[in-house]
């Protein structure tokens, strides 16, 4: 696997967010709409009915409303790392606009990159994919535990507590 599979910005910024306190990475969000065009009807409905709830839940996010004549509605999100993302909201219902605003609020601002490499081989691995239960008996999948067949108590008559007490007494 290549060393550049995970972006360094991701490891440096995203994984450290939450160590200590959570800092919302969305700095400001702009809702662009037209006051008269029918294509912005749902965005205007969102602004009238749902925007106040969004702003009360997220006091650290600056919200702008930008009316633009004869342009499709959109959301522009600006993050703390300087990135800007915009999404067209044409023909999206107010509930869907709420979901996209929450999506932008929850994002880290790091660019989404495809981490799947286009590697292909004509001879795939004959070993198969390993998993923790690979060499276990398949009967354990349907067994009701505790089952005396798979219990260590069956063989020796001792429980784990007995083993611990025995080791403790032997050391003294």
From TrEMBL:
Domain Ribosomal protein/NADH dehydrogenase, residue spans: 35-108
Superkingdom as given in the UniProt entry: Eukaryota
Subcellular location: Mitochondrion
InterPro entries to which the protein is assigned, alphabetical: Ribosomal_mL43 (IPR039927), Ribosomal_mL43/mS25/NADH_DH (IPR007741), Thioredoxin-like_sf (IPR036249)
Keywords, ordered alphabetically: Mitochondrion, Ribonucleoprotein, Ribosomal protein
The keyword Mitochondrion belongs to this UniProt entry's keyword annotation: yes
Pfam families associated with the record: L51_S25_CI-B8
A GO term for molecular function: structural constituent of ribosome
Descriptive protein name: Large ribosomal subunit protein mL43
Lineage, broadest ranks: Eukaryota, Metazoa, Spiralia, Lophotrochozoa, Mollusca
